From TrEMBL:
Alphabetically ordered keywords of this record: Cell adhesion, Cell membrane, Disulfide bond, Glycoprotein, Integrin, Membrane, Repeat, Signal, Transmembrane, Transmembrane helix
Residue ranges annotated for the AD domain, each copy included: 516-628
Bias (Polar residues): 595-605
Single biological process term from Gene Ontology: cell-cell adhesion
Listed name of the protein: Integrin beta
Cellular compartments per GO CC: cell surface; focal adhesion; integrin complex
Stretch forming the signal peptide: 1-23
Transmembrane annotation, as ranges: 328-347
Pfam families found in the cross-reference section: AD, Integrin_b_cyt, Integrin_beta
UniProt-annotated stretches for the region Disordered: 422-445, 590-609, 631-657
Amino acid sequence: MLIKSFLINLILLLLFIIHVITSLEQCNSQESCSSCLSLSNQCAWCSQNSSDMSTRNGSFFHCDTIDNLQLTCPDHLVSFKSYHYVLQNDSLSNAITNTSQAVQLSPQAVHVILRINDSEKIPIRFRQAEDYPVDLYFLMDLSHSMLDDKEKLSYLGRILATQMQSITKNFRLGFGSFVDKNVPPFVQPAPNTVERPCPTSYNGPCVKAYGFKHHMKLSDDVAEFEYQVREAPVSGNIDAPEGGLDAVMQAIDIIGWRNDSRKLIVFSTDAGFHYAGDGRLAGIIEPNDGECHMTNNEYTHSDKQDYPSIGQISAKLSCRRILSVRSTIIIIVSSILAFGLFCLMVWRMLATLHDRREFAKFEQEREKAKWETDVNPLYRQATVKYQNPTYRGYKVAAALDSNQLVTFLFYEMRLMDHHDNPQIVKRDNSNHSSPIPTPSPPPNNLRVNSIVRLTTIFDDTRVGKVVAFDNGSNLVTLHMKGSKPGLTSIAVINLIHCREWTVVQEPTDETLEPLYPIDINKLKKRQTENEGEKRKEASFVNLKASRTGQALFRDIKKTMNQVIRWSNNDILINNTVRIVDPYRAEHVSIDAPPQSANTTVSKTSAKGDNDTKTHIIKLVDKFWLDQAKLSSNTDSNSSTRNKSDNSNKQVDSTSTA
């Protein structure tokens, strides 16, 4: 018995050895990766080029056992085992807010490397999150037979919302209705029954049949849901089935489902539904295309396309996230515009860098350039000058180091007499003690309709035709070209403030031009508007408030001019948001609103007040931030000014020495 058992084990061992040897030889015969890996679990594949592989016993194989390939092929090029690694593994969590997403499945993304005929185990965890978003849409048959059900649904709307609140707080309701195609034989063809297909015993509101109406988008407003269901009118048709599938096909696209929500459609009817092919009874042979055809929240292709099939509804639900043609076009156009803007920004940045490099080269060349003093008569020693137009010279100042020689240059500005050159008229001041220059006698060649060029003491040149000239005040009125074609400018210039004037062209005719017409009514209207504006500005001034409060008031008034006013020493915006002294962000509050019977209006008003308060807090924070920056700049300017005064004192002491 023992000998028999020993022989059986020996035979099995020999068979196993023969199988292994055969498998190894078969591994060497494979020439592709797929055939190699699918042959046996003992075979592995090397993806290295044949010329780069090391030889084993004078030969090499791409397909071999893992032990043999580790001798001839780098480890990272050997394909042998299946494995996976996690790309995204967010921890399971609940939705903190209505906008945040709950995580119910972990991991979220996994990359798997799997060899042929092999399997890989991936651990996955799931937990149902609390307050997971739920979108519930009521799609109701509003034929006359559903009248009592409509009233019950309106009554149970708030009860339903309350029960759903115990399951999730992130819950939204929507409402839509359907009847059937408004074509015979689905409705009565008689004219008196098409517009009002309800029974004659019913005196309530009744409309003609329709395919689908979207009454209310998904919202958490339960009162609005009750109102829409209660006010929706009923209709009627003559056959038993209804057009519910038309409504479901349109509701899938138009409702506005959230991507991360649990989506529910409550289909409420008391009869069956038509499906694909029933439209041929009414002569409608065009099949349903599965697209959205809604205008003003009503299905427009009810009498143009056949009913959808169950398979179309299933396919629509499975690929609901596929973009429509319109969305695809919008995305493509937006991408092209974004790419164009990006290219424009890159071009602008490159142009700016090029301009800066060219400007830097120009600055370097300008610093290297030196003028010969004996050749260029315009050369002056590089000094910092300050010119006061009301005085007769230039004041030279410079910040110098100690023990440095200082030379002060004073230039006497003497203007030529106008008798020296009949075309260039200048003035000279004989009174050197007066800080304001005295006017020289008016020129006798400054005549009306002559073209003159005036250069002011600020080096501002004006060229125009003389309209009027007053000898007593030395005032000349010039008619000049405007900044735009077709416009003109009138300038009144005092010749005392001109360092030279040149007669460009003598007049051929000194006849005065006719005065421009004056619209008295327009002037009065402008005066009235200006007075009203000034009175309004005066009403914004509150002498009892602090300077800080007045500055904050002016800052907010720039963007909210129509809704801001003073309430004693408080700033009141929109009659609800109040800022009290000392006018910080924490002193912004909302006045208690008056009691209102309309809950919807009260909620809307409260939301608007909260938005206004948030905006005002941002404005107040920005105001105080600007005040802090202004204070720091003032302190730095004061320190700089003190350093400059100390430096000037050192220069004065050095020059005195």
